[in-house]
Amino acid sequence: MKAYPTVLSAGPITRFDGLAADAPPRSLRTKIPVRFNPFLRLLLFVLLFAASAGVFFLGFAVLIGATSATQMVVGAAIQLLGSVLAYAILTLLIESRRPPVELAPRRALGLAWGLLFGTLAILVSFGVIWLLGGFRITGAAWPAAVGDWWRMVFVVGVVAGISEELLFRGVFYRLAEEVLGTWLAILLSGLGFGMMHLGNPDATWWGAIAIGLEAGLLFGVLYAWSRSLWLLIGFHFAWNVVQGPILGITVSGTGTQTGLLRVLPEGNPLISGGVFGAEASVVTVVLLTTVAALLAVRLARTGGVVAPMWIRRARQRRAIAAESSAAATLS
Fold this sequence. Notes:
Layout: H1 38-59, H2 68-94, H3 110-131, E1 135-140, H4 146-180, H5 182-196, H6 205-226, H7 229-246, E2 261-265, H8 269-272, H9 282-301, H10 309-330
Antiparallel strand pairs: 1-2
Helix pairs in contact: 1-2, 1-4, 2-4, 3-7, 3-9, 4-5, 4-7, 5-6, 6-9
């Protein structure tokens, strides 16, 4: 019996088709259903997300004309609900994975590990930048409006942590990996993740590239290793919340600093990250990409890498030819 992935590790690739545990089930005897085509599934997810978000937008329409703060929360809630519903339909109905291994209830402890790892990662990055003179702590500060603080936790923590991981690791990475293999999927999903942040108020090209390198690559490797969105959601939530609502550092160039501490960037922007925040610091880039590289080496050595589709098909053809030759010899 095939071992089920643990909380933190999916183990080596053992499926006959060379795919990971989070790919739709295949059969040796039947033709692969059209709905399993990666490009079709990506298109269906986009359409489902757009339709779901549209429905929720109509449901929240009464609040759209409210204050800007309320509009921000409503927009974030629509993004969250739309992505969750679209992902549920994709995995449970279209892919026939019940439950999807990356969100299996028995692996939910990965959320706690993600919270721990994400907290440690941002605290170490912050500490090194501070020691190098990139940050100045001016004191403690409880936000003037408590609601503003919780609003930021919801937007940068809950919504970003869940919806962005569903999109970039749960959909984009998984589907790209089925076609292009693990390494290209990590690179492309990381690039897309970084470029998404160009829409933020204080975004810079370097900031987007930095996020793509540090978080995009690390999150991709972590997902390839664990096949757990629980782990990635916890990591992403902790990274953003500790960085912004707790330490008071601008998150990803969003232009907001609502934290329990007053922390100001100073000195060389390459060290502090400037107005974009700690994610644009070369310190953060070096630390997290180093961790990603070490995990990637470990992933390759333990057999957790999915080969590109054309290589998998060539291997299957050779295996079938070898079996046919052996059968002919025996007969």
